[in-house]
Design brief:
The longest helix has about 35 residues. This protein has about 110 residues and is mainly α. It has one domain. Helix content is about 85%, strand content about 0%.
């Protein structure tokens, strides 16, 4: 994995958890708006919107660089529209990055899978 691909995956991983948190907070704000006089939906909606757009941009860049199959790309996109999906995306991306580092070290040391 080259440095640009690793950077694209890292950016996607770093925005996925905050996007998920903002989605959950937006849901809470929506419920509070309908049950109380508290209305933070416009502010939280804007914050979540920016984070969602960043997630989609970083997802498209990662898909382009990693050459994921359509199913893998679709899973990562679907995780962005689920309230807690960003947490699962972050975990999967972290695991993928760790596996890539292990594989690169093995190649560097000349270890080959038997």
């Amino acid at each position: 994995m080259d440095i640009k691909t690793a950077t694209a995956l890292r950016r996607l991983r770093l925005v996925s958890a905050p996007e998920a948190v903002s989605f959950l907070i937006l849901i809470v704000c929506s419920v509070l708006k309908r049950t109380t006089d508290f209305n933070a939906v416009p502010v939280m909606g804007a914050i979540h919107g920016v984070l969602f757009v960043l997630y989609v941009l970083f997802w498209a860049d990662a898909w382009n660089r990693t050459k994921w199959p359509l199913t893998t790309a679709a899973v990562y996109f679907a995780l962005s529209v689920l309230p807690t999906g960003g947490f699962f995306a972050e975990r999967r991306l972290r695991r993928e990055a760790e596996d890539a580092v292990i594989a690169a070290r093995a190649r560097k040391e000349g270890v080959v899978n038997a």
